[in-house]
Amino acid sequence: MWASAERSATGLSSMLSSGTPGNDCLTWCWSGSSTALLALSLIESLDEFSSLGIDFISYTEGVDTTTPTGQLLFHIVGAVAQFERDLIAERVRAGMAHARAMGKRIGRPRAKVDLEAVRNLRTQGKSLRAIAMTLDIPVSRVRRALVRGGP
């Protein structure tokens, strides 16, 4: 089984679809560092497992949700993984705020629109969509250029 934070794993999906009450879920993780990352999405899946009557057992990490101790350990690892994610997100937000304070523009650079070409094509009677296709830009950008640049 393989899982990610986005829960787009085919192994997880197939396991959930084939699960029946009384089944055990056995995982094998090759990398111990991936366990913390997997734990968060698996904790979300644990509720699904429980509702299907599926127990989760990982022999490499010693996690067995059939026991109270295993459930506790599983949730502690998940809490640490969530804490690490929150710290990363906090650092990213702080870095972006600092960059903005220093006058940096955050995000994708604005695409250049040739306002003269837009105006010329518009005076020729072309529609916004035709202008956008000619200049290979979105219609919204053509509209914005006309509004900001005047008729």
Mean pLDDT: 77
What class do helices, strands and sheet pairing give?
A: mainly alpha
Full CATH superfamily name of the largest domain? Resolvase, N-terminal catalytic domain
- Gross CATH architecture of the largest domain: 3-Layer(aba) Sandwich
Envelope shape: elongated
Helix content: 55-70%
CATH class of the largest domain: Alpha Beta
Strand content: 5-15%
Query: What is the count of β-strands?
Result: 3
The overall number of domains is 2
**Per CATH, what is the topology of the largest domain?**
Rossmann fold
Terminal-residue CA separation: 59 Å
Number of helices: 6
Largest sheet: 3 strands, mixed
Description:
With 151 residues, the chain is mainly α. The protein folds into 2 domains: 10-101, 3-Layer(aba) Sandwich (Rossmann fold), CATH 3.40.50; 115-149. It is 60% helix and 7% strand. The protein has 6 helices and 3 strands; from the N terminus they run H-E-H-E-E-H-H-H-H. It has helices at 10-18, 33-52, 68-101, 115-123, 128-135, 139-149, and strands at 24-27, 55-58, 63-64. It has a 3-stranded mixed sheet, with helices on one face. Strand 2 and strand 3 form a beta hairpin. Helix 2 crosses helix 3 (68-101) and helix 5 (128-135) packs across helix 6. The longest helix is centred in the middle third of the chain and has 34 residues, at 68-101. Residues 1-7 have low confidence and may be disordered.
